[in-house]
Amino acid sequence: MATSATSSELPSLDKLITSRLTGNELEEYNRIQYGKNKYDELSIAKANLELAEKHNFEIAAYNFPTKNEELRSARIVKIGVIQHSITTATDKPIVEQRQGIFSKMINIIEAAANENVNILCLQEAWSMPFAFCTREKYPWCEFAESAIEGPSTMFLKELAARFGMVIISPILERDEVHGDTIWNTAVVINESGKVIGKHRKNHIPRVGDFNESTYYFEGNTGHPVFETKFGKIAINICYGRHHPLNWLMFGINGAEIVFNPSATVSGLSEHLWPIEARNAAIANSYYTCAINRVGTEKFPNEFTSGDGKLAHNEFGHFYGSSYITAPDGVRTPGLSRVKDGLLIGKVDLNLCRQVKDKWGFTMTQRLNLYAESLSNAVKNDYEPQIIHSN
Ligand SMILES: NC(=O)NCCC(=O)O
What we know:
Elements: H1 13-20, H2 23-34, H3 46-54, E1 57-63, E2 76-83, H4 94-114, E3 119-121, H5 151-163, E4 166-175, E5 181-189, E6 195-200, E7 226-228, E8 231-235, H6 244-252, E9 257-261, H7 266-269, H8 273-284, E10 287-291, E11 294-303, E12 312-319, E13 323-325, E14 340-348, H9 350-359, H10 367-377
Parallel strand pairs: 1-14, 2-3, 3-4, 8-9, 9-10
Antiparallel strand pairs: 2-14, 4-5, 5-6, 7-8, 10-13, 11-12
The chain binds N-(aminocarbonyl)-beta-alanine (URP).
Pfam family, one: CN_hydrolase
Domain CN hydrolase: 77-349
InterPro entries: Aliph_Amidase/BUP, C-N_Hydrolase, C-N_Hydrolase_sf
């Protein structure tokens, strides 16, 4: 009922390229397409490769070399992102489904810790199936949990403290204090295992089978940037990646790394995936990390979404392909389209300012021009600025 791609799924776009091109052609492809003729791949500890082999996940790590400055010391941080499939059929008890995911995550998080990852982000709604396609309230609402003391937070708090790692945990949140409302939320846990805050998804999709608006409303937490021991981080949850102003506000608030935990399927968005988070890194002079689920999730009852498709009970293929982009637009290859994975980027946060100095995007962005234009554009009597030919 759960997981794994069909045998016809392409395992990896990047591997397809590297299996077809060699030598100078491959270097030219990489330079033009990804910004660097050769990736600076980091070696992975043998024990970790064995762990990955044993538990069937991919592990890859890349360095983003950055020029040393005279007056500021380098601010080297290891970022980790995890993509994973669900483990258990979606008609099994909730606790069993959640525990299945916890059990596999322990191995991947341990691998991240062994590679000295400082900040780790998981995928959207990581501890449950992405059941919002169904529009059924039960049992799916029962997965919603407290951001402070729900099972996912308790599980990750312990690991964050044990490994001295900041962990971002995107969950389905139940706010019991405020009307038992449900939210799509990323919880930020610091390296001591303390919840330092949360961000709620700002933009909720109403496209295809993404019937999330049946369950939760647009977030009410603005654009928080969390100042952690390892840098200033923010989270732009999934569909927010289609909204340039959402990315912009995290930049204005000083983010150095913006994570984009997502759940999206190949029929809908795969051609957009390599562009949006990468473009945001370029436009806002920060690092971005695009993280997608993997596998095909199947639900007990058929559903429709008013788009002419016949009733079905599979959401489609979550294509993984998580990747990291630096502020200069250089990116890593993507993780697999079909397999769980841990992707690590060793970055120097000084690059954010170096790119601002070089390209001047923050200096030239004309915020007050747009503030004025936008405040006019939202008025009911706004007349679009169109010059007619006659
Ligand atoms: N989870 C989510 O917001 N998905 C919407 C589809 C997309 O943005 O590609």
